[in-house]
Design brief:
With about 500 residues, this protein is of the alpha+beta class. The protein has twelve helices and 31 strands.
């Protein structure tokens, strides 16, 4: 069974073979169709010069072992192709069929062997399984008690009931404490909400339970005191949409892609960049990974081949952040040179370049990060050095701002059109700079953290804005005992995590 037959067909026609092979491994497919599938995947691995993967498919998989037994001549042809120093598509894809046509034929054949189980059927099976567990004593709870089926324990209302409306976190719930000489450089929640992952200055990548704030020992490798690691400080983390894979980037320019549940390194790119990795982002289909770096570039990497597919050059300083647009057609980079650039993913050309600098502001300010607004995907939030977060269009038009300055005024149409317009008078006193931000899952709230004020390293604070009104709704002063480095929001709960140089991650709830 599959979640969607259409999605499965799309994975085949787009060559998402890691997903396809994982699906077919749990289904009962006719041997003839499996042989055709594995043979084609083998040929595509040869085309990408993934020779080790191709060799493993040919010599270590049951379908191709069956091919060797039943059709030795056909199998020997594959051995011959493996030994060739070059790849000829016309020789490999026989019968006058292109790679795309073969994919379509395979998709059509496999689609007849898979089906979708209706949600009602799954609910019925869960109900029957629960009744049986209660009958046998495997689930020793009364019938009226709510149970978390994934944990096998009594469930708290907050963990099983879906939150209908977003509320902003304001209370400290839990604290994760690192060793004396270690602290978290970056942290991210998994898209399914089960894990909070940290990357630390000593190179460790650790997985935590966000509810208990304890190291997740349900993962066998962590229970055995084995961890995902880099040789240098981990500066960037990103998850695939299905939470299966985690990418990590380090100070030495290396990128690793891990299978989270096993801790196995699936792809290693030791020289992805010449300097430290600043951010990472998976493509929507999980086949590509985009990275930014202190080396002033952003790069797109193919996860099947581990090779760099595209390089975006043009920034004059560190590239601090890079993201894909929701449709995957563009990439957006943010740099310390003060520029935001929008890139065409097909041509690698820069479509637009602009700065969040307001009229009357003479110097360009470093841009730390960007994010697409969930409800208005043609607009982005920009975090640059200063007291405001800007909402801008993809062409650089300033729409509005979120400011911690009580004397701030929203930009007017006339001030944007007039280059001689003056910047509003600064507020009294010295305000800290905003250094990072995060959006709530539905986009109702926007959170930002500030740098410490002069002379007080514990003065980093968090501010919560209402996205609809731009109003500042809540402030949490002194998040940590030292400088706060960043924050991350849970994907479906009102929960935030902030991390600091004091060696702690604080988890905040309403």
């Amino acid at each position: 069974t599959v979640d969607s037959v259409e999605g499965f067909i799309s994975d085949v026609t787009h060559g998402n073979w890691d997903i396809v092979l994982r699906v077919v491994s749990s289904t009962h497919m006719p041997p003839k169709k499996l042989v055709s599938l594995y043979e084609h995947v083998f040929l595509e691995m040869l085309e990408m010069r993934e020779l080790e993967t191709a060799r493993a498919l040919l010599r270590q998989t049951e379908p191709l072992a069956l091919l060797k037994q039943r059709e030795p001549d056909r199998y020997q042809r594959l051995e011959h192709l493996l030994g060739r120093s070059s790849f000829d598509p016309k020789e490999a894809y026989t019968g006058g069929h292109t790679k795309e046509k073969r994919r379509a034929t395979i998709a059509q054949a496999l689609s007849k062997e898979v089906s979708v189980v209706p949600p009602s059927r799954l609910l019925f099976l869960l109900q029957q399984a629960t009744r049986w567990q209660r009958h046998t004593g495997a689930m020793p709870f009364d019938g009226g008690v709510k149970v978390d089926l994934f944990r096998g324990t009594k469930a708290k209302d907050s963990s099983v009931q879906k939150e209908h409306g977003e509320t902003y976190p304001k209370d400290l719930s839990k604290t994760i404490q690192f060793g004396k000489k270690s602290y978290c450089e970056v942290a991210r929640f998994s898209p399914d909400g089960r894990f909070l992952v940290s990357g630390s200055v000593d190179g460790f990548v650790e997985v935590w339970d966000p509810v208990t704030a304890k190291l997740n020992k349900e993962l066998p490798y962590q229970a055995s005191e084995e961890f995902m690691m880099h040789d240098e400080a981990v500066l960037a983390l990103a998850f695939s949409r299905d939470s299966e894979f985690l990418a990590s980037g380090s100070q030495d320019g290396a990128i690793k892609v891990w299978q989270l549940l096993t801790g196995k390194c699936m792809r290693r790119m030791d020289q992805a960049h010449t300097k430290g990795i600043t951010s990472l982002c998976f493509s929507r289909d999980g086949t590509q990974l985009i990275s930014s770096s202190f080396d002033m570039t952003a790069k797109v990497h193919g996860l099947k081949s581990g090779k760099t597919i595209k390089v975006f050059r043009g920034h004059q300083s560190f590239v601090n952040d890079v993201i894909f647009t929701p449709d995957g057609s563009r990439a957006i980079t943010a740099s310390s040179d003060g520029a935001i650039k929008v890139w065409d993913m097909k041509t690698s050309e820069c479509m637009s370049s602009f700065s969040p600098t307001r009229p009357g502001q003479l110097n360009e300010v470093p841009v730390f990060s960007v994010a697409v607004l969930p409800r208005t995907p043609d607009q982005i939030i920009v975090c640059s050095r200063g007291t405001s977060l800007a909402v801008m269009t993809m062409s650089g038009h300033l729409v509005r701002e979120f400011s911690i300055d009580p004397n701030h005024t929203q930009p007017s149409e006339s001030s944007q059109k007039d280059p001689k317009a003056k910047e509003p008078a600064p507020s009294s006193g010295t305000l800290p700079d905003i250094i990072a931000f995060s959006l709530s899952p539905k986009g109702d709230y926007l959170y930002c953290i500030t740098s410490p004020t002069s002379g007080d390293i514990s003065s980093s604070s968090m501010h919560c804005f209402n996205v609809n009104t731009s109003a500042l709704e809540h402030t949490i002063p002194k998040l940590h005992s030292s400088e706060t480095l960043g924050l991350t929001h849970h994907p479906n709960r009102s929960m935030l995590a902030t991390y600091s140089k004091d060696g702690t991650i604080n988890v905040w709830v309403p």
